[in-house]
Amino acid sequence: MNEIKKWKHIFKLDPAKSISDKDLERICRSGTDAIMIGGTDNVTEDNVSHLMKKVNAHSVPLVFEFSNLESIVPGFDLYFIPTVLNSKDVKFHNGMLLEALKNYGYLIDFEEIVFEGYVVLNPDCKVATLTQANTHLTTEDIEAYAQMINDIYKLPVMYIEYSGVYGEVDMVKAAADSLSNTQLFYGGGINDYKEAEAMASVADTIIVGNIIYEDINKALKTVKIKETHK
Ligand code: 1GP
User: Which helix (DSSP H) or strand (DSSP E) does residue 146 occupy?
Assistant: First the structure.
Protein backbone atom coordinates (compact mmCIF):
# COMPACT_ATOMS: atom_id res chain seq x y z
CA MET A 1 0.00 0.00 0.00
CA ASN A 2 2.99 2.29 0.41
CA GLU A 3 3.05 2.81 -3.32
CA ILE A 4 0.09 5.19 -3.11
CA LYS A 5 2.22 7.73 -1.22
CA LYS A 6 3.99 8.46 -4.49
CA TRP A 7 0.83 9.03 -6.48
CA LYS A 8 0.32 12.62 -7.62
CA HIS A 9 -2.34 12.07 -10.26
CA ILE A 10 -5.24 9.64 -10.58
CA PHE A 11 -7.82 9.33 -13.34
CA LYS A 12 -11.21 8.26 -11.99
CA LEU A 13 -13.35 6.30 -14.43
CA ASP A 14 -17.06 5.92 -13.87
CA PRO A 15 -18.17 2.38 -14.82
CA ALA A 16 -21.66 3.69 -15.66
CA LYS A 17 -20.27 5.97 -18.38
CA SER A 18 -19.07 4.79 -21.76
CA ILE A 19 -15.63 5.44 -23.14
CA SER A 20 -14.20 4.31 -26.47
CA ASP A 21 -11.37 1.79 -26.52
CA LYS A 22 -9.14 4.43 -28.09
CA ASP A 23 -9.81 7.01 -25.37
CA LEU A 24 -9.39 4.38 -22.67
CA GLU A 25 -6.04 3.43 -24.11
CA ARG A 26 -4.94 7.07 -24.12
CA ILE A 27 -5.95 7.42 -20.46
CA CYS A 28 -4.14 4.22 -19.45
CA ARG A 29 -0.97 5.19 -21.32
CA SER A 30 -1.06 8.83 -20.20
CA GLY A 31 1.53 8.48 -17.47
CA THR A 32 -1.06 8.90 -14.69
CA ASP A 33 -0.10 7.13 -11.48
CA ALA A 34 -3.27 5.05 -11.25
CA ILE A 35 -6.75 4.48 -12.56
CA MET A 36 -9.53 4.45 -10.00
CA ILE A 37 -12.85 2.87 -10.97
CA GLY A 38 -15.77 4.22 -9.00
CA GLY A 39 -19.00 6.15 -9.22
CA THR A 40 -22.20 6.96 -7.39
CA ASP A 41 -25.09 5.78 -9.58
CA ASN A 42 -25.59 2.54 -11.52
CA VAL A 43 -22.34 0.93 -10.43
CA THR A 44 -22.84 -2.79 -11.03
CA GLU A 45 -20.78 -5.97 -10.96
CA ASP A 46 -21.17 -6.13 -14.76
CA ASN A 47 -20.01 -2.65 -15.66
CA VAL A 48 -17.20 -2.74 -13.07
CA SER A 49 -15.79 -6.07 -14.28
CA HIS A 50 -16.16 -5.01 -17.93
CA LEU A 51 -14.12 -1.84 -17.35
CA MET A 52 -11.66 -3.61 -15.04
CA LYS A 53 -10.80 -6.14 -17.74
CA LYS A 54 -10.20 -3.42 -20.31
CA VAL A 55 -7.93 -1.40 -18.01
CA ASN A 56 -6.11 -4.53 -16.85
CA ALA A 57 -4.91 -5.03 -20.43
CA HIS A 58 -2.57 -2.11 -19.66
CA SER A 59 0.13 -1.96 -17.03
CA VAL A 60 -1.17 1.04 -15.05
CA PRO A 61 -2.10 0.42 -11.37
CA LEU A 62 -5.84 -0.12 -11.05
CA VAL A 63 -7.89 0.45 -7.93
CA PHE A 64 -11.56 0.20 -7.08
CA GLU A 65 -13.47 2.70 -4.96
CA PHE A 66 -16.29 0.98 -3.18
CA SER A 67 -19.79 2.46 -3.37
CA ASN A 68 -22.10 -0.52 -2.97
CA LEU A 69 -21.90 -4.14 -1.91
CA GLU A 70 -23.15 -5.57 -5.18
CA SER A 71 -20.32 -4.26 -7.35
CA ILE A 72 -17.26 -5.62 -5.53
CA VAL A 73 -15.19 -7.59 -8.01
CA PRO A 74 -11.87 -9.38 -7.40
CA GLY A 75 -8.89 -8.46 -9.56
CA PHE A 76 -7.99 -4.91 -8.50
CA ASP A 77 -4.61 -3.92 -7.08
CA LEU A 78 -6.23 -2.08 -4.17
CA TYR A 79 -9.72 -1.42 -2.79
CA PHE A 80 -10.50 2.08 -1.53
CA ILE A 81 -13.31 2.31 1.01
CA PRO A 82 -14.73 5.76 1.73
CA THR A 83 -16.07 6.78 5.12
CA VAL A 84 -17.98 10.02 4.59
CA LEU A 85 -17.29 11.88 7.80
CA ASN A 86 -19.71 14.75 7.18
CA SER A 87 -22.58 12.43 6.25
CA LYS A 88 -25.63 12.42 8.53
CA ASP A 89 -26.22 8.74 7.76
CA VAL A 90 -24.26 6.05 9.60
CA LYS A 91 -24.56 3.83 6.52
CA PHE A 92 -21.91 6.01 4.87
CA HIS A 93 -19.66 6.10 7.92
CA ASN A 94 -19.39 2.37 8.58
CA GLY A 95 -22.78 0.77 7.80
CA MET A 96 -21.88 -0.51 4.34
CA LEU A 97 -18.48 -1.55 5.62
CA LEU A 98 -20.16 -3.61 8.34
CA GLU A 99 -22.26 -5.40 5.71
CA ALA A 100 -19.21 -5.90 3.49
CA LEU A 101 -17.27 -7.49 6.34
CA LYS A 102 -20.20 -9.68 7.33
CA ASN A 103 -20.53 -10.93 3.76
CA TYR A 104 -16.95 -10.97 2.51
CA GLY A 105 -14.73 -10.45 5.55
CA TYR A 106 -13.28 -13.95 5.29
CA LEU A 107 -12.19 -13.25 1.70
CA ILE A 108 -10.55 -9.88 2.26
CA ASP A 109 -6.82 -9.34 2.13
CA PHE A 110 -6.62 -6.34 4.43
CA GLU A 111 -3.29 -5.32 2.92
CA GLU A 112 -5.30 -4.37 -0.19
CA ILE A 113 -7.69 -2.06 1.67
CA VAL A 114 -7.26 1.72 1.84
CA PHE A 115 -9.75 3.44 4.17
CA GLU A 116 -10.42 7.01 3.00
CA GLY A 117 -11.74 9.77 5.24
CA TYR A 118 -14.06 11.65 2.88
CA VAL A 119 -15.29 15.19 3.37
CA VAL A 120 -17.83 16.17 0.70
CA LEU A 121 -18.01 19.91 0.01
CA ASN A 122 -20.13 20.43 -3.12
CA PRO A 123 -23.76 20.54 -1.91
CA ASP A 124 -25.05 19.85 -5.42
CA CYS A 125 -23.11 16.70 -6.23
CA LYS A 126 -24.76 13.28 -6.24
CA VAL A 127 -22.63 11.96 -3.43
CA ALA A 128 -23.65 14.88 -1.17
CA THR A 129 -27.33 14.17 -1.80
CA LEU A 130 -26.97 10.41 -1.41
CA THR A 131 -24.99 10.62 1.82
CA GLN A 132 -26.89 13.64 3.23
CA ALA A 133 -23.60 15.38 3.76
CA ASN A 134 -23.42 18.61 5.72
CA THR A 135 -21.41 20.57 3.18
CA HIS A 136 -21.67 23.97 4.87
CA LEU A 137 -18.30 23.79 6.52
CA THR A 138 -15.77 26.42 7.56
CA THR A 139 -12.00 26.14 7.38
CA GLU A 140 -12.09 25.40 11.13
CA ASP A 141 -14.35 22.43 10.42
CA ILE A 142 -11.95 21.20 7.75
CA GLU A 143 -9.00 21.53 10.14
CA ALA A 144 -10.89 19.55 12.77
CA TYR A 145 -11.81 16.83 10.25
CA ALA A 146 -8.16 16.69 9.18
CA GLN A 147 -7.08 16.26 12.82
CA MET A 148 -9.74 13.60 13.29
CA ILE A 149 -8.47 11.69 10.25
CA ASN A 150 -4.74 12.20 10.82
CA ASP A 151 -4.40 12.11 14.59
CA ILE A 152 -7.35 10.13 15.89
CA TYR A 153 -8.57 7.71 13.24
CA LYS A 154 -5.06 7.65 11.70
CA LEU A 155 -6.43 6.98 8.22
CA PRO A 156 -4.03 6.73 5.25
CA VAL A 157 -6.08 9.10 3.05
CA MET A 158 -8.22 12.22 3.48
CA TYR A 159 -10.33 12.90 0.39
CA ILE A 160 -11.68 16.42 -0.16
CA GLU A 161 -14.51 15.78 -2.60
CA TYR A 162 -15.97 18.61 -4.68
CA SER A 163 -17.15 16.26 -7.45
CA GLY A 164 -18.42 18.30 -10.38
CA VAL A 165 -17.18 21.74 -9.29
CA TYR A 166 -13.76 23.21 -8.77
CA GLY A 167 -13.21 23.67 -5.07
CA GLU A 168 -11.85 26.40 -2.86
CA VAL A 169 -8.08 26.19 -2.62
CA ASP A 170 -8.24 27.68 0.90
CA MET A 171 -10.33 24.76 2.13
CA VAL A 172 -7.91 22.26 0.64
CA LYS A 173 -4.98 24.16 2.13
CA ALA A 174 -6.63 24.13 5.57
CA ALA A 175 -6.71 20.35 5.35
CA ALA A 176 -3.17 20.09 3.99
CA ASP A 177 -1.76 22.23 6.80
CA SER A 178 -3.39 20.00 9.43
CA LEU A 179 -2.13 16.66 8.10
CA SER A 180 1.24 15.13 8.90
CA ASN A 181 0.92 11.44 8.04
CA THR A 182 -2.33 11.20 6.11
CA GLN A 183 -2.16 11.67 2.33
CA LEU A 184 -4.46 14.39 0.98
CA PHE A 185 -6.55 13.59 -2.10
CA TYR A 186 -8.40 16.37 -3.89
CA GLY A 187 -11.11 15.69 -6.48
CA GLY A 188 -13.62 17.92 -8.22
CA GLY A 189 -13.98 20.01 -11.35
CA ILE A 190 -10.40 19.87 -12.53
CA ASN A 191 -10.88 20.70 -16.19
CA ASP A 192 -7.47 21.81 -17.40
CA TYR A 193 -3.79 21.90 -16.62
CA LYS A 194 -3.95 25.21 -14.74
CA GLU A 195 -6.61 23.96 -12.32
CA ALA A 196 -4.73 20.69 -11.90
CA GLU A 197 -1.53 22.56 -11.12
CA ALA A 198 -3.22 24.83 -8.52
CA MET A 199 -4.68 21.89 -6.60
CA ALA A 200 -1.56 19.74 -7.00
CA SER A 201 0.44 22.46 -5.28
CA VAL A 202 -1.76 22.06 -2.18
CA ALA A 203 -2.99 18.43 -2.16
CA ASP A 204 -0.71 15.39 -2.33
CA THR A 205 -2.79 13.73 -5.03
CA ILE A 206 -5.33 15.07 -7.49
CA ILE A 207 -8.20 13.05 -8.94
CA VAL A 208 -9.46 13.90 -12.42
CA GLY A 209 -12.83 12.48 -13.43
CA ASN A 210 -15.54 14.06 -15.49
CA ILE A 211 -13.38 15.97 -17.99
CA ILE A 212 -12.25 12.58 -19.36
CA TYR A 213 -15.74 12.23 -20.82
CA GLU A 214 -16.08 15.87 -21.91
CA ASP A 215 -12.71 16.74 -23.41
CA ILE A 216 -10.16 13.95 -23.39
CA ASN A 217 -7.34 16.19 -24.63
CA LYS A 218 -7.79 18.58 -21.72
CA ALA A 219 -7.96 15.63 -19.34
CA LEU A 220 -4.69 14.23 -20.68
CA LYS A 221 -2.91 17.56 -20.21
CA THR A 222 -3.56 17.44 -16.45
CA VAL A 223 -1.03 14.61 -16.17
CA LYS A 224 1.70 17.19 -16.83
CA ILE A 225 1.52 18.22 -13.15
CA LYS A 226 3.66 15.14 -12.48
CA GLU A 227 6.61 16.96 -13.99
CA THR A 228 6.42 19.81 -11.49
CA HIS A 229 5.35 17.76 -8.45
CA LYS A 230 7.70 14.81 -8.11
C1 1GP B 1 -15.18 12.52 -8.32
O2 1GP B 1 -13.39 13.54 -7.14
C3 1GP B 1 -13.75 12.95 -8.34
O4 1GP B 1 -15.35 11.56 -7.29
C5 1GP B 1 -13.42 13.80 -9.53
O6 1GP B 1 -14.31 14.86 -9.69
O7 1GP B 1 -15.49 14.26 -11.79
O8 1GP B 1 -15.46 16.63 -10.96
O9 1GP B 1 -13.38 15.57 -11.89
P10 1GP B 1 -14.69 15.36 -11.16
Answer: helix 139-147
